[in-house]
């Protein structure tokens, strides 16, 4: 039988007399374990990640007996889960992993939670003790359904072999449909070993589970009217649009509406960085242009985005003058963090397919505002405040330069995987993303140690698709050590991974916030001294790579870095790890102080370019000057001590940008000459010493 979930009183166990197999129908006779593997094969699964154990041994034997999906042996269960995530994100398929019971299953909690936060479709198959032993504190017994209940989309405890085909069909469908997410299937050893007859279910039977995919015509017409008449429209695109495969529709809506667009961290790559409509990534580590556009827009069209605090900063001051159209397949997200003027529940791609013709009709029938001044302002921000970096004064490598060089050599079809930390933000800023499904990272949960196993999963996915893409992992020395044992997996599988470790001998992001919160502005001349526990004494990464049979390289100068990148690009028979010794003083900019508004964005220490924009976004501006406030302090209102420290000498270095008034009049934008190392915007090339 299939036991109830905790919501249905999981604390009880049904009559154990049902545990014996009761073959039905005229299907092929086999064990429950074989039925599970056959189900995976019939569902089109070609890859399973996992670790063997006593309670899933029958499943692994069935994989062999039936020549089932390829099994990739990871060295830790958590890595199996992250590898399945990387596989799912790089291929658009459901990721599948398989582990045993007890500690093996509990090791899966982090990747399950990670997949839930980032809406990644996973089917997590765990072994469980025999049904007759459940509740007896048997060896390696753990209530994994109960443990993971808060962080799964759905879960099953299977005690009868006859139920396995229908459960697997349902689990796969639930994981992939609606808002994707992880589904746990906990299978007792008694169900695995029992005999059954296998018949493939024609379709999943799930009464009550009917995700809404198409929107009602009334809300679409209302949204189209707002888009057609907006003076400062902006598309705010989140990870849900990526999961929906809505890249083509997002680009078309941008063109039809004449609206620039910003993408959140999980949505990077849905629109090529070279697209002129692309403004940047918003949020606490976002660009000036992206955050300025959000604060100044009068209509915000959110597509598969959930308004989380890393994007909004202080939610009360987020997009203060904007009406909101919110499109999401999950009705729970609508209005959760920001009230929507027009709520639209449905699959992003399908909703946009229906919305775009209505926008075209509304613009044709009623006319539309001239958006020239709005684009001038947005382009002004992009030009005046580009993504740049400072050269370290100690002669060490700048991590931003390293990432930029890797990006330029790797090619536009590369799959980029990151761990979590400073390097993740630098990668988002300095990698040129031009293709869909090319960005794999942990966003909502922010899991350190995610990178290497996710890169293994992505590399296995690329191999399955046979599309010739290479996989680069950008990692930090701290997070990499959390799952470095997976070098053994990469080498055993013969995966030609390219691994760049940005080695600054610290937990860099935490270190940066530590200095900032102590009142030491992080910059190239920041005062030394870290809080105890933030230093990381790293191993010899080159020797570590070589010990696992991988190629290990080290770079401390630009010449060595360029040579190492070229060697990595030329290698195709084993993983290559490069230890880039970067400046420990390198910091992530821009950033929003804790608890601050996007108006408080610090471009560099002492430079607050958006100090007047939020106030201006909420009311009409003077047509001639675009002036919205007398000073940065006037615009931002009451501040925290950290924000006060950041506002030193803001006005002379960060002129407020003009905004178009509500009637479409022309505002003035001050432009300064760009200098130093700059990331390309639109179709421009990078400048600076490359």
Principal-axis shape equals globular
The Cα radius of gyration reads 26 Å
**Number of helices in the DSSP assignment:** 27
Largest sheet: 7 strands, mixed
SS-derived structural category? alpha/beta
Catalytic activity: 2 pyruvate + H(+) = (2S)-2-acetolactate + CO2
Family: Belongs to the TPP enzyme family.
Biased composition (Low complexity): 628-639
Domain Thiamine pyrophosphate enzyme central: 221-355
Explain what you see.
The chain is α/β, with parallel strands linked by helices and 690 residues long. Helices cover 35% and strands 15% of the residues. The chain contains 27 helices and 23 strands. The protein has a seven-stranded mixed β-sheet. Strands 12-11-10-13-14-15 form a six-stranded parallel β-sheet, sandwiched between helices. Helix 1 crosses helix 2 (57-65). The longest helix has 19 residues, at 348-366.
Labels describing this entry:
branched-chain amino acid biosynthesis; transferase; 27 helices; EC 2.2.1.6; globular; disordered C terminus; alpha/beta; 7-stranded mixed β-sheet
SSE inventory with pairings:
Elements: E1 2-3, E2 28-31, H1 32-42, E3 47-50, H2 57-65, E4 70-73, H3 77-91, E5 95-99, H4 103-106, H5 109-118, E6 122-128, H6 144-148, E7 154-158, H7 164-176, E8 182-188, H8 189-193, E9 195-198, H9 217-229, E10 233-237, H10 239-244, H11 247-257, E11 261-263, E12 278-280, H12 288-296, E13 299-303, H13 309-312, E14 323-328, E15 342-345, H14 348-366, H15 372-384, E16 388-389, H16 399-410, E17 415-418, H17 422-430, E18 439-440, H18 451-465, E19 471-476, H19 477-480, H20 487-492, E20 498-503, H21 508-517, H22 541-547, E21 551-555, H23 558-570, E22 576-581, H24 613-617, H25 632-636, H26 641-646, H27 650-653, E23 677-678
Parallel strand pairs: 3-4, 3-5, 5-6, 6-8, 7-8, 10-11, 10-13, 11-12, 13-14, 14-15, 17-18, 17-19, 19-20, 20-22, 21-22
Antiparallel strand pairs: 1-7, 2-9, 16-23
Cofactor: Mg(2+); thiamine diphosphate
Pathway: Amino-acid biosynthesis; L-valine biosynthesis; L-valine from pyruvate: step 1/4; Amino-acid biosynthesis; L-isoleucine biosynthesis; L-isoleucine from 2-oxobutanoate: step 1/4
Domain Thiamine pyrophosphate enzyme N-terminal TPP-binding: 30-145
